[in-house]
Specification:
Elements (H helix, E strand, L loop, with lengths): L7 E4 L5 H4 L13 H10 L1 E5 L4 E3 L7 E7 L2 E6 L5 E7 L4 E2 L10 E4 L3 E7 H9 L2 H27 L2 H20 L5 E3 L4 H8 L3 H13 L3 E4 L2 E4 L2 H7 L3
Antiparallel strand pairs: 1-2, 2-9, 3-8, 4-7, 4-9, 5-6, 5-8, 10-12, 11-12
Length: about 240
């Protein structure tokens, strides 16, 4: 994998960073004992990525595994005709590159400033192979990701534009709430309108019209860094249609 020098920077990881990581409870590291965390930290190399940096590209050799500790990452597939389909957004606590394939099946770009722990895939695999409890944790995460993929198929295939946008916003609210530890009506949206459109299978014009409609109906308020929910129950109802 090649990383543009002015977009990615190596970081020095201080001792016991893994043990003190506030995101540990969210990711697969929660399954590890203190001495195992120290072993994992020995394998880690910290990297920061500026906005727009490519962490890895589709079809490149899958050489590394990433544990996202700050920022948002855009995950997408490049189609044969050059179009892209965004398949998700990784948030702090997510691991990237855990698939067994020898090559990455999608691209990963930094939406905003991103910090991640990077591990050699082979060294990480050797580490995991000796820890059945960690394998179980990874299996749980994989099952959850399959469930999210199923939900996304339903959203794209069976729901109207306003239902898709509501589902996206409520889903993102729930994910941020899981990270922060509390639920908020404020939903940060670091990704662009085009990103949201590509994720929901809509045009950017439809996204803009739908957000404006929700604002007119006093369901949301559009703020500089995202949206604020005004009618939470109504928005949640749209996700269950």
């Amino acid at each position: 994998m090649q990383i543009t020098a002015n977009l990615a920077h190596s970081l020095t990881l201080p001792g016991k960073q893994c043990a003190n990581c506030a995101l540990r409870r969210l990711n697969i590291c929660a399954a590890l004992y203190p001495e195992e965390l120290a072993q994992l930290e020995f394998l880690a190399h910290g990297f920061s990525f500026k906005r727009g940096a490519t962490m890895f590209a589709q079809d490149n050799p899958a050489e590394f595994v990433y544990n996202l500790t700050a920022g948002v990452v855009r995950l997408y597939i490049l189609l044969p005709d050059g179009r892209r389909q965004i398949i998700g957004f990784a948030l702090p606590g997510d691991f990237l590159g855990l698939a067994l394939a020898d090559h990455y099946g999608f691209c990963a770009d930094a939406v905003d400033s991103v910090i991640a722990c990077r591990y050699s895939r082979q060294a990480f695999a050797d580490f995991v192979d000796t820890k059945p409890h960690l394998l179980r944790r990874i299996h749980e995460f994989s099952t959850h990701e399959l469930s999210l993929a199923h939900d996304q198929m339903v959203i794209l295939g069976r729901r109207s534009a306003i239902e898709r946008v509501a589902s996206f916003l409520i889903g993102l609210r729930d994910r941020w709430s899981h990270i922060d530890g509390y639920s908020s009506v404020h939903i940060t949206l670091p990704m662009s309108r085009q990103d949201i459109a590509d994720f929901l299978g809509l045009t950017i014009e439809t996204i803009s019209r739908t957000l404006s409609r929700l604002a007119r109906d006093k369901q949301i308020v559009i703020v500089p860094d995202g949206v604020r929910l005004l009618n939470v129950s109504s928005m949640e109802a749209l996700t269950k249609v």
